[in-house]
Design goal:
Helices cover about 65% and strands about 10% of the residues. By secondary structure, it is mainly alpha-helical. A hairpin with a 2-residue loop joins β1 and β2. The chain is elongated, with a radius of gyration of 20 Å. The model has no long low-confidence stretch (mean pLDDT about 90).
Amino acid sequence: METRRDVFQAIADPTRRAIILLLAVSAMTPNALAEHFNTSRQAVSKHLQVLTECEVLTQEQQGREIHYHLNTAKMKEIEHWLEQFKQLLSKRFDQLDDVLKKLKTNKK
């Protein structure tokens, strides 16, 4: 049984973010990914497990090797969720700009 993990905790780790960036370019095996890091293959496998459990990555068995792929649907889901906050912050910064302009005008 899979343990579901929080996707934001998973992507908070810099190594996992680097793995995501590598897999955004091309599917890779754990050994191929491990070559990009100064760590053991087992450590990379643990990161892959975490990212797979939160559905950021998918696995594809090709012969004796497992290839990891970025789950673009999950990444779009994350992006959509974050977009709400981006819009909210943008609106608040626009309001702050208006207040600062009024203060500047009243000072003159």
